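The data are set out underneath:

___
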Amino acid sequence: MNEKTKLPKSLDEIYKSINSYGYYQLFFLITIQWSSITAAGNMAAGFFSLGGLIPTYICSDEDYEFELDAKQIRNDSSAACLMIRNCSNLTTKNAWYSMYEEFGWVCESDLLRTTIATLMPFVSFLSLSVSGHLTDYFGRKWLMVFGFTVDLLCDFGKAFTPNFEVYIILNVIGALAGTVHVGATFSLTVESVHSKYRLIQGFGFQFSLGFMLAGLSCYLTGNWRTHLLVMNFLSIPVLLMMLKLEESPRFLIQQKKYDQAAAAINRIARFNRRSHIQYTPDDLREIQLAAPGKKQESTKKYTFIDLFSNWRLTSYAISQIVTGFTMNVVNGVMFFNIQDLAGNPFLNIALMGALRLWTPFAGVALENGAKNFGRKKLLVISQGIVAFCFIAMFSIALADLSDSLRIFGTAAALIGYALETGLVWIVYKLYTTELFPTVIRTIALNTFSSTSLFGSMLSPQLVYLKTYWSPAPFSGAAISSGLSVLLAALLLPETQFVALPDTIAEATKREELPIEDDDKESQDNIKPLYAKDVEQNESLLVD
């Protein structure tokens, strides 16, 4: 007698049959985490962060001696420039050989670099405005590979740049490619795993290990060029690993490329040691036609306007825009202000990573062990703590307390940063992928990444304003994080253990999309037509 079987009703059931979290998903996680490690190393050495560290200038002329540290130079850069130019026997004492020292920025206006840092997000904005549409039209995998390759070549080029002008050109090209890579990668990540494991896969984008390695590399190499070479040599294997990944089956099904979708799923099955399970294009065609709205929506071309097609989606978008803005403000305030924090800048960079190490484990534990602690509570509570931390740092800066007390403010800011970039970031990204359907998922990711760039544009100006009002950077972080908490609490629904919507019709009826999970049935009991035919033929042969 044949074992009772049934056809899959959704991609989650398909993933369950070929192993909800198998070798393929683990390989995917390692690939993304490896790419994030090297990305963090490049980010840490940027011209407006560690690359811009100001050395201490020491003049040892016979009748003209002085020692100017970073704080004195920032307070009166014009006078510092004049003193340095009039010194014949000048030496420096530095944490490492930075771009600031090599390119002689002590005699250039800080406003110039602040303006460049503010304008750079416009480059990413231009890329994001089209890359989300390209990814939802043409696919995730090859845009991911293309973006990563171009970004890697640009980062290598920066290590050999002859001047700052060429460095900025490479930065612009890398920013254009990098935004394409990140948007495509995140969509591919969450669409290539069972819905119950989206949070685990999302944590592959953590920069914790990357910042720890970056702090160590900066200390050991002692030179910004050498550091970039080391970090980007580590990236080369990632490109080869990306080529092994499959295109998103969800995307292929939405594009009616059933043959390619079936082939991708069957290769994932073989990777997961379930080669006896094979799906056909007919299986996947039935899945697409089963849900309401799929027939009508499968051929439509979408734009960012569809993110606001009804009030429910609009309310989600408003909250996500503010949270994304907040994340970039917090990130910019910390990185662009790194030399003003108490303690060693390399140690602080490493701590930015180390303090985030626990966040993936906490997120996964909450995901699997606390049924009443879903996405919404995780976002509201973690963002609330971030707001409290930056209010504390703002208060200390406002009171202009002593350096010994500023250590407590620095600790609060580091904790706030760790939560913002660890827990808030992942739940924000997951919320976007879970609230918005497959047909506009990457458009949503890239649209909100675009609007979050306004935070990147604002943060350099907040850092520049500290010359006139020292608490300025931390005031921006405190206000925006508080607003993010309020909007999330009022507007966002819970999406934990809710199946990914594929169409706008499904996205507006979230409560009707529970994940299929009948624990009484084994994974092998959910089988495609091909597997049923094989079993029936084998049964006939035995008889």
Notes: Confidence is low (pLDDT under 50) at residues 1-5, 516-543. Strands lie at 56-61, 64-68, 90-93.
